[in-house]
Amino acid sequence: MSRPDDRSDRMSLDDFEDLLADKPHDETWELIGGRVVRMMTGARWEHHFIVQNINFALSSHLRAKASPCRVFTEAFRLKVRSQETSVVPDVMVHCGPLPPGASSLDAPTVLVEVMSDGSIGRDRGEKWQVYRKIASLRHYVLVERDKPVIEVFDRTGEAPFKERMIEGLDAVLELSALDVAIPLAEIYRDVLSA
């Protein structure tokens, strides 16, 4: 089995998991549709604040509603075996039980990616090609890091995804599958000023 060191190598999910065992813990690697990608480490503070704000807002709303949905951030893997994919979304919401000791899931309800110049192509391209085929997914949320703009892809039932744009700190991100509404001012708190 070859050991990839660049971004162009392809492999199966099983081989990728073997590869991860040999990599240092401070490196982040993803497998997107069979393509191995070494991820950037040390994202900008704005990225981390946005992820924390989304996590806090979603977790607070879901707990208040006694929802069975749980929020996972940046260290929990999404694995889609049928698409040879193992990725680490910025924010992921899963509704329903998880097996004890799980370190990944395969049936998210919501996926959120905070986009940077280096990730925008993957987030809108390769990852979206994988994510749109996940039957459980109801909302794919793409968050601009440097301005209050959010692109959302929504699906109800078996219908195709529909795209919508949300702009401005006065706008609200509504996620109907979770019965949650989050003001963009909360998402960008301490990152962008009004």
From TrEMBL:
**PANTHER family membership:** GLR1098 PROTEIN (PTHR36558), RESTRICTION ENDONUCLEASE DOMAIN-CONTAINING PROTEIN-RELATED (PTHR36558:SF1)
Q: Which InterPro entries match?
A: Nuclease_put_TT1808 (IPR012296), Restrct_endonuc-II-like (IPR011335), Uma2 (IPR008538)
UniProt GO molecular function: endonuclease activity
> Is-annotated flag, keyword Nuclease?
yes
Q: Which organism is it from?
A: Lichenibacterium ramalinae
Q: Which SUPFAM superfamilies match?
A: Restriction endonuclease-like
Its name, as the record gives it, is: Uma2 family endonuclease
Superkingdom: Bacteria
User: Which keywords accompany this UniProt record?
Assistant: Endonuclease, Hydrolase, Nuclease
Q: Where's the Putative restriction endonuclease domain?
A: 14-166
Looking up Gene3D superfamilies in the UniProt record yields: tt1808, chain A
